[in-house]
UniProtKB/TrEMBL annotation:
Keywords: ATP-binding, Nucleotide-binding, Transport. The keyword Transport applies. This is ABC-2 type transport system ATP-binding protein. Coiled coil: none annotated. InterPro entries: AAA+_ATPase (IPR003593), ABC_transporter-like_ATP-bd (IPR003439), ABC_transporter-like_CS (IPR017871), DrrA1/2-like_C (IPR025302), P-loop_NTPase (IPR027417). GO terms for molecular function: ATP binding; ATP hydrolysis activity. Residues 6-233 form the ABC transporter domain. PANTHER family: ABC TRANSPORTER, ATP-BINDING PROTEIN. Belongs to the ABC transporter superfamily.
Length: 303
């Protein structure tokens, strides 16, 4: 592996009889944004906590720059936990400077970084307020500033967009992209799959503690089932029933959505549609990340 790569290598973790992770494996390169998605309890937070050293893995290894993470290198990670870890009665700027010093910054550098990030995240007017008196969205911004204040080499964020309004989402998205563009690997989990699809270079879908799919959004969508949308205004109900390898997913007026088996012939569908009269639309549909995720969850429920 090349330098500046965060590697999660065959991490496993059990709690009694419950298997939380089963050889979880993925890597995130410098300047890459990796979206980590899965149902509640799939293993995302456990993976992040092991990477941070908050939990110990039963087996496997976490590496940065080709070497196992230790206490020193973990101090170079910016972490945003899902359960927010701020001191509620501490003032915003004071808290950020304090956290910077905990990561080894001088007092002057920590104060300067606190000022810089409060301004960048729209918190300048809240610098001297206690965290507990802020709105939940502003507390979220402070939590992100806490992850960034020490200029980390890696960012690991657990549900960073939860509870944010659209303006705050845009601000946080821009900050994360800036960090990626500067060469920082960014890993974040989120249930907001439209954001993951829009922001991430690669995505990993987790199910029952395993990575079941990983790749760019385009790659994952190309691996999904082929869906056709056919608009045949004169077609009678059931016109596609005899097309080999085609299953009707939905009918909306004259528009029929079909899912094709891997070896099915889309031209056979077109031929069947044309026998009914004119065809106003015949298009392939690539599944969205949300649809891919829904398929994974459905597979899990039926296993």
């Amino acid at each position: 592996m090349t330098d500046r790569v965060l590697e999660i290598d065959r991490i496993s973790k059990r709690y009694g009889r419950v298997t939380a992770l089963q050889e979880m494996t993925f890597s995130v390169r410098a300047g890459e944004m990796f979206g980590f998605v899965g149902s509640n309890g799939a293993g995302k937070t456990t993976t992040m906590r092991i990477a941070l050293g908050v939990l110990a893995a039963d087996s496997g290894e976490v590496r940065w720059n080709g070497s196992p993470l230790d206490l020193t290198t973990r101090r170079r990670i910016g972490y945003m936990p899902e359960e927010r870890g701020l001191y509620p009665k501490m003032k915003v700027a004071e808290q950020l400077a304090y956290l910077g010093e905990l990561h080894g910054m001088s007092a002057a550098d920590a104060q300067a970084a606190a000022a810089r990030w409060t301004e960048r995240l729209g918190l300048t007017e809240r610098r001297d307020e206690e965290v507990q008196k802020l709105s939940l969205g502003n507390q979220q911004r402070v939590q992100l500033a806490a992850a960034l204040v020490h200029d980390p080499e890696v960012l690991i964020l657990d549900e960073p967009f939860s509870g944010l309004d659209p303006v705050a989402v845009d601000v946080m998205s821009a900050v994360l992209r800036e960090k990626c563009d500067s060469g920082v690997p960014v890993v974040f989990s989120s249930h907001q799959l439209d954001l993951v699809q829009r922001l991430c270079d690669r995505v990993g879908i987790v199910r029952s503690g395993r990575m079941v799919a990983s790749g760019s959004v385009t790659e994952l969508r190309d691996q999904g089932p082929v869906t056709l949308v056919v608009d045949a205004p004169d077609a009678a109900p059931g016109w596609a029933a005899d097309v080999p390898g085609a299953q009707v997913v939905s009918v909306d007026g004259s528009r029929t959505t079909l899912q094709l088996d891997e070896d099915a012939d889309d031209q056979a569908v077109l031929k069947a549609a044309l026998t009914t009269g004119p065809v106003r639309e015949f298009s392939r549909h690539r599944p969205s990340l949300t649809e891919l995720f829904r398929n994974v969850v459905t597979e899990e429920a039926t296993e």
